[in-house]
């Protein structure tokens, strides 16, 4: 995984550079300094966050250690599904998709798009708004406002664990300084010892500052940035669905509505018009 590769690069660059300077790696092994830094940071993290933030952070951690599910293949599945749904609505009317959206896992219409079915949050977003469209009680303007509100709420919830991890990273250098000060206090209490022992104690104290900064900027802060990126991918898919459904409500044909949605997709995952058209044809042939 890229995240593990990044950790290895950081640690090899820092500790490898120290070793190449004839540094003694054993001097950097200070378990009590690590205990003060991690313990203090963890305690402050618990104090600074309520139960909701702690739960959201815990459930967000697995997202960091697996690849993104929002790939070109998923977007092709998503756009093909929306095209099929809108085409069925155009040919048979809104009521024709009522059973499909009530139970998408048993629907022949949704059944061909396994990548979308595996994303429960995205699937709920699609079926919820299709259900509102079928009800016929909301116009395009009202539906757009409701979609924007839900996407904004999703972004706010997603930002909670990101900010929590960022604050944890921001506090680690300070706890490193605390560990270093405690080491200096310990050194001063042993001022009568030989110079060689005092030098070892001072070195151990300075390791606290080093570890606090390294853990913060080298390991923890990048996790917050990656988590923010993961949550952006979720909202991007929701925006894609939003634009497509609104284009259909405004009278555009399914082919044009899907093209509206395709333009919202990030350039690295966006399929070309020809790729998407070929994918739809292939699924129909099956």
What distinguishing features does this structure have?
12 helices; elongated; 286 residues; mainly alpha
Main beta-sheet annotation: none
Roughly what percent helix? over 70%
Beta-strand level of the residues, as a percent range? under 5%
Q: What's the Cα radius of gyration?
A: 27 Å
Could you say which structural class the secondary elements and strand pairing correspond to? mainly alpha
Helix count equals: 12
Low-confidence stretches: none
The SSE string, one letter per element, is HHHHHHHHHHHH
Tell how many strands the DSSP assignment holds. 0
Would you mind describing this structure in some detail?
The protein is mainly α and 286 residues long. It has one domain. It is 80% helix and 0% strand. It is built from 12 helices and no strands. The two termini are 34 Å apart.
């Amino acid at each position: 995984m890229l995240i593990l590769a990044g950790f290895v690069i950081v640690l090899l660059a820092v500790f490898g550079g120290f070793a190449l300077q004839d540094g003694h790696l054993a001097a950097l092994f200070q378990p009590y300094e690590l205990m003060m830094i991690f313990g203090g940071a963890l305690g402050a993290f618990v104090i600074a966050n309520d139960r909701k933030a702690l739960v959201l952070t815990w459930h967000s951690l697995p997202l960091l250690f697996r690849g993104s599910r929002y790939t070109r293949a998923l977007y092709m599945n998503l756009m093909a599904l929306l095209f099929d749904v809108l085409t069925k609505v155009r040919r048979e009317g809104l009521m024709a998709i009522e059973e499909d959206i009530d139970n998408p896992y048993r629907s022949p219409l949704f059944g061909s798009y396994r990548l979308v079915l595996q994303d429960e949050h995205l699937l709920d977003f699609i079926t919820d708004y299709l259900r509102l469209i079928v009800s016929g009680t909301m116009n395009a303007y009202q539906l757009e406002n409701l979609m924007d509100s839900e996407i904004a709420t999703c972004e706010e919830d997603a930002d909670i664990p990101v900010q929590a991890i960022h604050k944890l990273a921001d506090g680690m250098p300070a706890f490193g300084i605390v560990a270093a000060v405690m080491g200096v206090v310990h050194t001063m209490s042993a001022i009568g010892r030989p110079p060689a022992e005092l030098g070892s104690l001072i070195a151990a104290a300075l390791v606290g500052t080093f570890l606090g900064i390294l853990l913060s900027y080298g390991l923890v802060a990048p996790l917050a940035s990656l988590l923010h990126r993961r949550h952006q991918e979720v909202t991007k898919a929701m925006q894609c669905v939003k634009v497509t459904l609104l284009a259909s409500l405004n009278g555009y044909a399914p082919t044009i509505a899907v093209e509206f949605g395709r333009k919202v997709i990030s350039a690295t995952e966006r399929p070309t018009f020809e790729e998407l058209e070929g994918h739809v044809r292939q699924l129909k042939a099956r």
